[in-house]
């Protein structure tokens, strides 16, 4: 049924209000001014509706259908769809999500695939995508546009069923929902502690200057997350300049006057006192220059890339979802700090716990081959 007027929403509500699974898609238009929701396609596997979001100003009458504790939304690559729908229905809490693109990536090597690809692979359906680039804001919509739009949800129930069965065979049914929800998580990068070795040009500092940098690094690790604090790279400039006054400290690039006055000047006094204990006779560079790159680093990066590919092949999960960029960044930064990379298996938490055993196996195999 094509819902074009607000008065018709009750028909949709009555048909779907008891549903616990909704298969959903949207059509929208993106402009510089923003993204406008144009059409909502939804089915519970029995009843199917097209809801005109252009002609209907207020869609909150459908909130009881879409916003309830027991509901699951099934979509394909639905990150943007979910945001648009939650706004349209006035929702504040995201429902349980199953993304069929994510589900497929948990049982194959493929990460970003189209819905039509899954329909062909899993259902044997070849669809005409000629209306994919239609103008969904223009009214009236043609019958071919409506047929195309509703077709995007009619196959979802069967795809969902197949993916659930396949995930269950792999022992990762819960992972499909957990990984689908992970797409919406906003990850804040944890500020890592710094040390003298964080500075590539440490060798350029004299022993007195290194004493100052050590004091600044200790302060930064304790209080460097405060507003107005200088960037950790600016600490090197402070240590190198060895400022004698507030004015000299404030002139250093990256140092704010408020921070210099409230905090920095006290650190300068501490640096002066500690530096005075270092003999002038020892003022020679104590360290050799740090290399910008080494073959050991290249080999370590190659090993990590091989581990990623081998582990994903062992569990049949697409590398992009098993080892997303934030996890790879963490592994690259911590692999230097462990004596044996096998210990990095503890980084695989939640649904990624299934990666622990193949990771350990790869570590043992590569260690025995050295």
Chart the SSEs and their pairings:
Blueprint: E1 2-3, H1 9-16, E2 21-31, E3 34-43, E4 48-52, H2 63-66, E5 72-75, H3 79-89, E6 96-99, H4 100-105, H5 115-123, H6 143-154, H7 156-169, H8 173-182, H9 207-223, H10 234-241, H11 246-250, H12 257-275, H13 295-315, H14 319-322, H15 325-334, H16 356-369
Parallel strand pairs: 1-4, 2-5, 5-6
Antiparallel strand pairs: 2-3, 3-4
Taken from the alpha-carbon principal axes, the silhouette is elongated
Beta-strand content: 5-15%
Radius of gyration (Å): 29 Å
Order of helices and strands: EHEEEHEHEHHHHHHHHHHHHH
Helix amount: 40-55%
- Biggest sheet, in brief? 6 strands, mixed
Number of strands: 6
In the sheet with the most strands, the strands line up as 1-4-3-2-5-6
What structural category characterises the helix and strand content? alpha/beta
Q: How much is the average pLDDT?
A: 92
Task: Output the number of helix runs.
Answer: 16
State the distance separating the first and last CA atoms: 66 Å
Please mark out the parts with pLDDT under 50 across 5 or more consecutive residues, or reply none: none
Describe the structure.
This protein is of the alpha/beta class. The protein has helices at residues 9-16, 63-66, 79-89, 100-105, 115-123, 143-154, 156-169, 173-182, 207-223, 234-241, 246-250, 257-275, 295-315, 319-322, 325-334, 356-369, and strands spanning 2-3, 21-31, 34-43, 48-52, 72-75, 96-99. Helix 3 links the parallel strand 5 (72-75) and strand 6. Helix 7 (156-169) crosses helix 8 (173-182). The radius of gyration is 29 Å and the shape is elongated. It starts with a strand and ends with a helix. The mean pLDDT is 92.
